[in-house]
């Protein structure tokens, strides 16, 4: 399958939901992943990307949270579950997938926050991820800003 933008978008959508479920239910990653494959039509999803984001966040959780937590005005535990899942996933992506432009990572997270997050969460997500990108992707961000 050729990886399309929409297949990646679906992968992020499902990864965010899987991370949310993992946070809330505490079930095993493999059980949650199996449930997603059973309950969703994954034919138009970049399944490898979904898996990388979902398992990558869990495997690198301390590093991921340590990266974005320094920019929060509250503790990680005080974040609403959708914002926490999005910040985890997007921070992982910014740190580990330099092949994906930082603007794409941020725009996708903002779109998901608008769809699933509490009112105005997208503004908060955008602000935190801008700071993460400025640190983790400094060369790319500086080149972009001219």
From TrEMBL:
Gene that this sequence comes from: nusB
Function field: Involved in transcription antitermination. Required for transcription of ribosomal RNA (rRNA) genes. Binds specifically to the boxA antiterminator sequence of the ribosomal RNA (rrn) operons.
Top-level lineage group: Bacteria
The keyword RNA-binding is assigned to this record: yes
Keyword Manganese listed: no
Protein family: Belongs to the NusB family.
Keywords: RNA-binding, Transcription, Transcription antitermination, Transcription regulation
UniProt name for this protein: Transcription antitermination protein NusB
Domain NusB/RsmB/TIM44: 9-133
NCBIfam families: nusB (TIGR01951)
Name of one Pfam family that matches: NusB
InterPro entries: NusB-like_sf, NusB_fam, NusB_RsmB_TIM44
UniProt cross-references to HAMAP family, sorted A to Z: NusB
